[in-house]
Design the sequence.
């Protein structure tokens, strides 16, 4: 809620030693994220760190990742390249971000770079590409078909969800082009038994806000959800704007 931190990140230890480290472990735990098994190769040279995680296990899936940090100059630079396949989306996102609203098997790829010595500077300069896709899952706490009905009465605040609500999907994903912390997409998509969604817009990482336009379409009977068969095919273009934790 307080935004990104301006507190300086201390990269000085990267300049204190040169060398190479190779580690194999049954499990690596970083914060709440658990990687098992893992093979880690780290090279330190003149304030530059090059770390490679090869073919690691992650929440039922697998992945590869490289992290490069250059702290040799006045302004530290960072680069991350990662690919994850067939990951259990719910447990991974819960441990990695605290998000508990997505179910399904996830595929994720990111190629990101940034500069700066604090969180705010890093997200202000963030650039690169990201792709995310979830299959055969659900969005917890949100019933998009029900939300379409509510929107007929005016704007709504927040995600209008409750714990029992769900929106099931066969696929959910998007690809993003990121420049100076602004992530642009034109291919948001959700395909489910009751509703399909297409859309695009901007995710503002520095301000942690959304500006998206999506077009949900009812595609099947909503009996039991307060609607009737004749509503099938109804489309209501929707703008989603504001802080990403509580948009309108």
Sequence:
């Amino acid at each position: 809620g307080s935004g990104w931190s301006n507190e300086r990140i201390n990269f000085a230890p990267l300049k204190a030693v040169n060398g190479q480290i190779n580690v194999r472990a049954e499990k690596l735990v970083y914060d709440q994220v658990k990687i098992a098994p893992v093979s880690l190769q780290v090279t330190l040279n003149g304030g530059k760190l090059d770390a490679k995680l090869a073919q690691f296990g992650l929440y039922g899936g697998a992945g590869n990742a490289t992290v490069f940090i250059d702290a040799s100059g006045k302004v530290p630079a960072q680069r991350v390249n990662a690919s994850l396949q067939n990951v259990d989306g719910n447990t991974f996102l819960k441990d990695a971000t605290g998000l508990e609203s997505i179910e399904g098997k996830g595929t994720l790829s990111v190629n990101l770079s940034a500069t700066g010595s604090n969180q705010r500077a890093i997200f202000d300069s963030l650039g690169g590409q990201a792709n995310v896709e979830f299959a055969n899952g659900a969005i917890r706490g949100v019933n998009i078909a029900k939300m379409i009905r509510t929107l007929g009465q005016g704007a709504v605040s927040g995600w209008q969800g409750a714990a029992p609500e769900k929106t099931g999907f066969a696929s959910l994903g998007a690809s993003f082009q990121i420049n100076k912390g602004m992530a642009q997409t034109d291919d948001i998509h959700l395909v489910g038994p009751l509703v399909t969604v297409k859309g695009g817009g901007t995710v503002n990482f520095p301000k942690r806000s959304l500006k998206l336009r999506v077009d949900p379409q009812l595609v099947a009977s909503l009996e039991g959800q307060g609607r009737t068969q004749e509503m099938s095919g109804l489309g209501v273009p929707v703008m989603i704007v504001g802080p990403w934790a509580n948009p309108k």
User: Anything to note?
Assistant: Residues 222-231 have pLDDT under 50 and may be disordered.
